[in-house]
Amino acid sequence: MKILCLADEEDPAYWEYLRRDKLRDIDLMISCGDLKAEYLSYLVTLGRAPLLYVHGNHDESYAVNPPEGCDCIDGRLVTVKGLRIAGLGGCVRYRPGSFQYTQTQMKQRVWRMHWKLRRGVDIVVAHAPVKGFGDMPNVTHEGFSAFEHLIRTYHPKFLLHGHVHQRYGYQQQREYELEGTRIINVGSSYILEI
Fold first, then answer.
1. CATH classification at residue 100
2. Residues 29-63: pLDDT tens digits?
3. Number of structural domains found in the chain
4. Which residues are within 8 A (CB) of 64 and not within 5 positions of it... i.e. 6 or more apart?
5. Cα distance between residue 32 and residue 43, in whole Å
6. What backbone phi and psi angles, to 5 degrees, belong to 182?
7. What span, in angstroms and rounded, lies between the C-alpha atoms of 111 and 150?
8. Are 34 and 7 a contacting pair, CB within 8 Å?
């Protein structure tokens, strides 16, 4: 299965210069948040694959203009082509606004999904990173400690996230491994093959 993962910044290869054949082999698209609704609607219209998304901290406009033809999995667990995929959008609260949570609130969100996650999860789609694995030392880009607990308890194969843009640090690591889970900062785009 070939999955196109997206986050934070529209990739010109898919937004400005897209040839329809570029999406031909894509079986699923996943957005980790903070992308224009029009961009996601455009991709799901041109491609043949479903598009799942979670909210980023800048996605308040989705309340009145959600991405058309896309499926929000924030706070849900869905099964697509045999893969169990859970969504936990948002970031650590650093200002008033939607889709921002304290560490305790995210811990509660993870706990509320326990009955679904206990049967297994293949991919966790998040906006923010795991605390200590690709986050930054400022509160704006801090990761969630609840995600480390989620990984150690439910052992997903992948945790995908955005929020910490690749351009923020020249030497920034894109992938981490924690107890067999690959943690991937998808950047503006990333192809994941399973």
1. 3.60.21.10
2. 999 999 999 999 999 999 989 999 999 999 999 99
3. 1
4. none
5. 15
6. -85, 120
7. 9
8. yes
Residues in the chain: 194
CB 34 within 8 A of CB 69: no
Dihedral angle of Cα 9, 141, 60, 73, to the nearest 10 degrees: 80
Place of tokens 């293949």: 122
Question: Global pTM?
Answer: 0.95
What's the token pair of residue 92?
């650590």
pLDDT confidence of residue 169: 60
Please report which helix (H) or strand (E) contains residue 39, including its range: helix 37-46
| Under 8 Å between Cβ of 11 and 189 | yes
Range of the domain at 146: 2-193
pLDDT tens by residue, 99-146? 999 999 999 999 999 999 999 999 999 999 999 998 888 888 999 999
How crowded is the C-beta side of 6, counted as CA atoms within 13 Å? 28
Helix (H) or strand (E) holding 160: strand 158-161
**According to the 3-state scheme, what is the secondary structure of 3-33?**
EEEECCCCCHHHHCCCCHHHHCCCCEEEECC
